[in-house]
Design brief:
There is one protein chain. This protein is of the alpha/beta class. It has one domain: 3-Layer(aba) Sandwich (Rossmann fold). The protein contains four helices and nine strands. Strands 4-3-2-5-6-7 form a six-stranded mixed sheet, sandwiched between helices. A hairpin with a 7-residue loop joins strand 3 and strand 4. Helix 1 packs across helix 2. The protein is globular and about 50 Å long. The structure holds guanosine-5'-monophosphate and magnesium ion. Guanosine-5'-monophosphate binds next to strand 5, helix 3 and strand 8.
Amino acid sequence: MKVLLSEDRIHAGVDRLAKELNAFYGESPLTVVSIMTGSIVMLADLIRRLEMPVRISLIQASSYRGGTRSGELVVQDQMMLDIRDRDVLLLDDIFDTGKTLFEVSNRLRQMGPTSLKTAVFLNKLGQSTVPMNPDFVVFEIPNEFVVGYGLDYQDLYRNLPFVGVLEESDLARHSTN
Ligand code: 5GP
Ligand code: MG
């Protein structure tokens, strides 16, 4: 597998994001809403570098592209905390078309937070189809399918400590499994 982002670069990038957030929010309490499952690896690394009081809330979003209505986003929010009158940071693994972050942030805004900002680990350049950009981005990447550091292919590879681009040989291995 071709390594796009090494473990060292990732840690430096997450450090940089934490510094930006510490400077932006100061000592104000922050509620981090993390979109499962892809963002949990970054969540665990990021929150240990944040200096303000932090609450963590989980939400799951998945789009069923092969389903009845293609691209329909299914959101499960049973594990959401109350975010009314809170400063909220919405965290996702990757901003591709942007549909996920756009729809989830619209939903969170209806819950009455004081403020809502968005942060993503990766931003795929030139793919957005929505009228928003993430407020904080750790890395910009080209339009390639990547795995690792939380990102999966068929639910595998999330545990890789680096970000890699899947190659033909990796895909061939799946078809024989
Ligand atoms: P969007 O709604 O922005 O099009 O897509 C966001 C979701 O699509 C991400 O949360 C992620 O689950 C998935 N996704 C988009 N691009 C990639 C990619 O390159 N690799 C992986 N593993 N997932 C991706
Ligand atoms: Mg995802």
